[in-house]
Amino acid sequence: MISTLNRGGRLRGRLAALLLPLALAGALTACGGSEDDGTADDPAAPAGASDAAYPRTITHDKGETVLEARPERIVALDNSLVEAVVALDGNLVGGISSYRDLGGFPEYLGDTVAETEEVGPLESPNLELIASLQPDLIVSATVRHDDLYDQLSAIAPTVFVATTGPSWKENIELLAEALAEEDSAAEQIAAYETRAAAIGEAVNEELGDPTVSVVRFLDGPTRIYLPATFSGIILADMGLARPENQRDPEEFNIEISEEQIEQADADVLFYTSYSGGEERRERFLANPLWERLTAVQNGHAYEVRDEIWMTSVSLQGANQVLDDMAEIFGVDDAR
Questions:
Q1: Phi then psi dihedrals of residue 273, to 5 deg
Q2: Does the predicted model carry a pTM greater than 0.70?
Q3: Which N-terminal residues, if any, form the signal peptide (predicted)?
């Protein structure tokens, strides 16, 4: 087409006349910064400080990821990260809601996940569905999806935390950095910690500084959860003591058989059952050693919700654990 036009001066002149306005318009766009960035006609687009915070580079467990603008379409591939995004008012277009057969996003998240697409299961996220959601940020954990990082990064900027249990507060802070919500994260974590300390002080006063154990029944080993866990961190934030055999700051849990029930001995015992662990729970509770243990505790043995105490791993879940503690011991809930 161009070579044909070049055969005649008249046609060349006409072409130049047609192209000149376009060239001027392009120059004005480049110099004046008036190029449409996709936000001009979007009343929901962030403005002001949020815009000024980008681009930013997020350093995470798998390296560095550059975010050119505040993410507005987020996919979270672990339920704890789903809850972190919700806590930080992120727009969650896709997420993995829960583990195994628990099914569905937690009721306490309410309308915040009403439009969120389930992209699970956890073990094998649906990459085609994730891509179809056109995310501008994907968040997951190395412990969950290490082998999928490159594939996820090819879909959208991707940020990985290392794990999801003992680092739950740090994970919230990392997502806050990605969403330019550092102040919100700091305020929410501080409010939770203040509340935990107040309820813990009341429990210590009520029970005379009790020691506390947390036992979880699974379809594999039965576990005593130690300080470097979600529930363990909450107990520490409350200032509640652990039995001497449960104070290792590095270990995640102690696995026990029915013959080792006495290792869970404490003034107060909380226990949960994960999906598939119900049969083992029944065996333990029927064991005379368990009956003897709970008798020594003068009735201070309480069954609590696994989906809150164990798998939520979030600010929302932590505050519900505090609700349980306040209700169980009849102390002020410090809200």
A1: -130, 120
A2: yes
A3: 1-30
